Amino acid sequence: MALPVRMRQIAMDGAGAPEVMKIGTGELPEPKPDEVLIRVLAAGVNRPDIAQRLGSYPPPPGASPILGLEVAGEVVAAGDAVTDWKIGDRVCALTNGGGYAEYCTAPAPQCLPWPKGYDAVRAAALPETFFTVWANLFQAGRLRGGEKTLIHGGTSGIGVTAIQLAREFGATVYATAGTDEKCAACVRFGCDAAINYNAEDFAARIKELTGGRGVDVILDMVGGSYATRNIRSLAMDGRLVLIAFLGGSKVADFDFTQVMVRRLTITGSTMRPRTTAQKGQIAAELREKVWPVLDAGRCAPVIDATYPLDQVVEAHKLMESSQHIGKIMLTVGQSMIASG
Ligand SMILES: NC(=O)c1ccc[n+]([C@@H]2O[C@H](COP(=O)([O-])OP(=O)(O)OC[C@H]3O[C@@H](n4cnc5c(N)ncnc54)[C@H](OP(=O)(O)O)[C@@H]3O)[C@@H](O)[C@H]2O)c1
């Protein structure tokens, strides 16, 4: 099938409020030798898209300026060095940007197949949170079966994935969220206990839930205001993994004593600046260890709302309201094609 020359895409009229995003047109991106070109059927909205739209998270050099870090669709072209995907394959991909468009390129190693029985919307809901959770909770945080973990932002896109995977791999899972409704959702996703941080002190509750021991790994997206309580909530040899600073990145009067005394590890990472090889290594582990779990239906994406691409402003407004539970998705083309 011949490809069009131009495509619909979300353009930005400067940085700022959701209304800076407009439907526009542009040329199709060209795949580099190690990339595929995907006809996008669905794309995920992620909190980093909000930061990029506001101008505080610019795309790395060489990346598409178009928003959109994850897509699902069909491979329509491939660079000369691509051997593992062919035209017609249905993939979901962690992109380097450019997902809010009818066509998007992605490095071949960052693509994965649609799990069994998935449509494009569900497949597109996977890459950003599964790559992030695998890299931070399991690789950097070294969470193992039999351990205890605390997931902050339990109903965020990241949080619902973290809760499900931690439980699937045998951990006891606690989560925080801002309302009783969100806490109930965390429990439905497999959390052993959820803490409404607006109603009670999460550190006191973790102490009580763990008989004073604390948890082995904390996945945190809040940062500064949680720092001291996070340290108090970790067990001996505990690991704190920082993936965002929604509550600020700085803290006054932080006391490192407990880090030394209880042999704690404080670490963190971002996903976007990693190399293709590094992201490909995460993809390979996901394919081996997590995709069979998705194929079997033991974990699944949680989708709060789906909007057509031309309602992207509404999708961003919902994310900024923080009322959603799970993922917010965009449909771009004919998205409801089920996989075999
Ligand atoms: N480092 C990485 O590699 C990486 C990769 C992807 C995403 N991230 C980060 O991970 C976080 C979650 O991403 P996501 O796409 O899953 O986001 P999301 O679905 O929008 O969820 C964010 C949640 O954080 C909670 N929250 C706590 N304090 C907040 C505050 N001060 N302002 C706003 N929300 C607050 C909110 O839930 P409550 O109402 O329960 O508070 C909100 O629903 C984002 O900060 C994102 O930038 C990091």
Layout of helices and strands, plus pairs?
Blueprint: E1 6-12, E2 21-27, E3 35-45, H1 47-54, E4 70-78, E5 90-94, E6 103-107, E7 111-113, H2 120-124, H3 127-140, E8 148-151, H4 157-168, E9 172-177, H5 180-188, E10 193-196, H6 202-209, E11 215-220, H7 227-232, E12 234-242, H8 257-261, E13 265-268, H9 276-295, E14 303-308, H10 312-321, E15 327-331
Parallel strand pairs: 8-9, 8-11, 9-10, 11-12, 12-13, 14-15
Antiparallel strand pairs: 1-2, 3-4, 3-6, 3-15, 4-5, 5-7
Helix pairs in contact: 3-4, 3-9
Bound molecules: NADP nicotinamide-adenine-dinucleotide phosphate.
Write a structural description.
The strands form three sheets. Strands 3, 4, 5, 6, 7, 14 and 15 form a seven-stranded mixed beta sheet that branches. A six-stranded parallel beta sheet has the order 10-9-8-11-12-13, with helices on both faces. The two termini are 22 Å apart. The longest helix is centred in the last third of the chain and has 20 residues, at 276-295. With 340 residues, it is an alpha/beta fold. Helix content is 29%, strand content 27%. α3 (127-140) crosses α4 (157-168) and α3 crosses α9 (276-295). Bound molecules: NADP nicotinamide-adenine-dinucleotide phosphate. NADP nicotinamide-adenine-dinucleotide phosphate is lined by residues 46-48, 128, 132, 153, 155-158, 177-178, 182, 221-222, 243-244, 246-247, 269-271, 319, 322. Residues 46-48, 128, 132, 153, 155-158, 177-178, 182, 221-222, 243-244, 246-247, 269-271, 319, 322 line the site of NADP nicotinamide-adenine-dinucleotide phosphate.
